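Appendix B, Record 12. Input sequence as logged:
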Amino acid sequence: MAMQQMMGASSSAMPLKKFDVFISFRGEDTRRNFTSHLYDAVSNKVITFKDDNELEKGDEISSALIKAIEESYASIVIFSKEYASSKWGLNELIKILECKKDQGQIVIPIFYEIDPSHVRNQTGSYRKAFAKHKKDLKHSKDKLKKWKDALTEAANLAGWHSQNYRIESNFIKDIVEDVLKKLNHRHPFEVNKELLGIEEKYEETKSLLKIGSNDVRTLALWGMGGIGKTTLAKDLYAKLCSQFERHCFLENVREESSRYGLNVVRNKLFSTLLELRLDATYVETPIFMRRLACEKSFIVLDDVATLEQAENLNINNNCLGPGSRVIVTTRDKQVCSEFDECEIYEVKELDEYESLQLFCLNAFGEKRPKVGYEKLSESAIGYCRGNPLALKVLGTNFRTKSKQAWESELEKLKKIPNRRIHDVLKLSFDDLDHTQQDIFLDIACFFSMMHQWYEDRDTCRDDLICLLDACNFFAASGIEVLINKALITCKDFNCIDIHNLLQEMGQEIVKQESPKNPGRRSRLYDPEEIYDLLKYNKGTEVVEAMVFDSYKVENLHLSSDSFKGMTNLRYLQIRNTCFERKSSNVYLPDGLGWLSDKLRYLSWDVFPLESLPSTFCFERLVQLIMCKSKLKKLWDGIQKLDNLKFIMLNDSKDLVEVPDLSGAPNIEVVSLSYCESLCQLHPSILNAPKLGELHLNGCINLESLKTTTHSKSLYKIDLTGCSSLIEFSVTSDEMVWLSLSGTAIHELASSIWHNSKLTHLFLRKCQKLNIVGKKLSNDPGVMPLKKLDLSGCTQIDTLNLWHILDGLQYLKHLHLKECCNIEALPDNIQEKSMMENLILDECKKLKSLPKLPASLQKLTAINSTYLNTDSIQQTMLENMLHKLHTKSIQDRSNDFYEISFIPGGQVPREFDFHTTETSIVIPPIPKFGLSAFIFCIILSEGLNVSYNGVYCTIYERGKQVQKCYVGGRVTLISDHVMLSCQYVNDELVELGSESGDDHYNLSFEFKYYVDEDDGEFWSTKGIKGCGIFPVYDLKLRLELDGRIIGRDEIVELQSSAQVFYEFDQHLKLDIEELQYREVGVEIRGSNDENDQQQRK
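Logged structural output:
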């Protein structure tokens, strides 16, 4: 994507000029008073030119003055009483206005003790001056006219009038602020021509600073090392400091404090602010502090690393003048707590496009890769993951090198990180205490590697804290410190992530513990090094963690004492990430004689032994994971397992028994999925006082799960696919999720009523289940069930279903797929006012439906071919419109959609725009109030788009603006009608506002994605037609009519043609254009090949 964007990239740089401001004035009038005072004030802020010659030589201005005007970004013209008497000054003015026209020079007129109308109309003293010029220039009327025109033009510009001020110093102060503001707006200072991706960050931070308000504000720029905090701070300082009376950029606080001490750095801050010598003493005297409190200051404290440094440099807000601003750059969010009301801005990584530009600038001297280096450049930016420092360092390092050298360097980076990048990042690590460093190294070298073979390296924060606390690492506070120092991040779902550069930094730290001998390192993760270490028994007491992917090495035959030397091993994971390989390539021909008694985490996929020796001491073990193992049992007898919280033995096909876990009082999760030989569960498991989850799905020989103990903690049980299970009776105060799908139970025990918090109940394919005359709740309204899946329950009919639904007032999702004995839905379904999804697929006897609840969002009746669907389509259309019209703008999402998928072969008559083609071009429709579209697609008998989706692509004047998921996963035995709705997205709204027209010119294209053995492609085969129903914002339309509607009022279905008519009446548009939109008019599909090709 970045490479495609790169092709159109271009840049332009503003030419540099010698002066910021040129001052034009009449010397005799103002040189020694106002002009000198103004010059002093302006030149103190920017580079200013003022002609210091006391005498004007001749009428024409010198070439030096012409060049000075041309080399200035702005000109200040001081109109005084005698300004017009100077031919020199008038010629300067002409030149200044020429530069304004040709170069965009800023011109600011100052009317000093002169009425602007005298300048504009050449009256008063200006009339006298021109009378004199007329005598001197009898033969140059053209010159006089140019001077007059110049005066008139300049006087009409926005300027400053001295008569509006009583005090001249205030007059000068406001002029200077105006000059600086205009210069900063027109000519933003560039710290570095290679600044990329910073403009958006600059605007975001500038808005947070709220320049112009009189309160004192502090803003912290926070992020990982090398992410661009200092660069952003420099950009802000360069562009904004001129607006402040005092300013200081204190760079490298961490380094300077370490080298010279805190007092020297603080003295430097105050000396710079107060414009004193750096070696000045007594800089914080009361008189100096009063000066600071009266003047507006701009301070940047760069790379503040510790609370002590922050405390040392923090100037109380009361000691800074109104409007002062302080910016702090730091890697440690905790530092911000030292500053009053400090707002934090996280500086984030560059995106892919910006990363490629920055890398290429440093590698090639231009913003795109050289031909032949595209893939290598993509690899480099992938390694850097948006870190500007890394992008610059690698780009510079690769410059002038051959492709072969590039490939070698990129390969080297997988083993050895770049030293310069490593040293910068390691500063944050060095600030940690001992346990915090251990936590970071565990994450970088073990936990992140555990998940590296999947899509991400995320680790659940709670699991991490649990394991780290078992190692006495004070994990909750330690992880918070790492997050505050931007060494790790906490993402959605409370998952911990680490930037790959920081991960490599941590791994390099561990590698340096013993560069030549992996057996003397604390953490091991390299498969080849671990293979060698285990094969030759090189492990030592130094090793604390090992994560071994055996997929990348040859078969490994271990001796029984391969782990004997690793007495301090805390974490061990052995797995094979080749999912095609079902057997392990790690063998224990002589058994396993020893494992560390300090293990907290043991994960060994395809463990080759039938049991673990009972001599093992797992007292400190927190998690035990042995999936796809050869285990028949774990051990004999009872183990002391006070710390064990998690057991997973999934897919251990030979497992016949689970040991007594009464010695594991803290067990929370037991997962035995697909342990097909397991016939019974030890009673100690269900009696465990903290057990929360029990996964037994796929245990096909399990016949009974019963207990008389009422659990206080169990909230999830999964028995899906336990096909021999005929008895179930488990209750819990906390049970919210229960699946008995695919079991052989005949009836639900009355004990299910005691699960008072149950919200999800799955009874799919319980073909022997009979609920004749039974309720799921013995007290209407008590059971808070939200999702009920009865798909494939062949014993259920209409009467049974009535009893089941009675009392389930909170039900949102009801699945009745393949319930082949249901002929009609019971009437009480309309009472389910919270119902959102109703699945009636493959209900072959279903003929009719009662009135459905207005809350319904999704209705599918795929292949329920006896169903009369005309009234259903009308109901679902009304429901869709009701939702669209009553949903608040804040609640709307581009991901929101409702769907109806039922047998049928016609587009509903309410759709004004329809066709028998797969795409449609509709007439222009009003933009005002357009909020959504309802789509209709006719899919033909025999169509199979299983596991893929039907999509609609929307074009505005040929440009793709929106792509919507409509539906999918269908194999049809008759024609079907699919209805779906989608909100209009921002891109269409923005494009419409840019065009300036009052109407959209839209086209729509429907197709579905096919993934078959012979390839992947988009297809339209089997789509027999489509229709479009534009939906307009009801509230806007009713406001135009002068009416108000309540949110709960039912919306009467109108044709879209009528809506368009009403809108155009209000907008005073041409009604004749809408006449062809009458109901039933068919719009031809787009068949033009060129048009179709262009859209693809």
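Residues 168-186 form the longest helix (19 residues).
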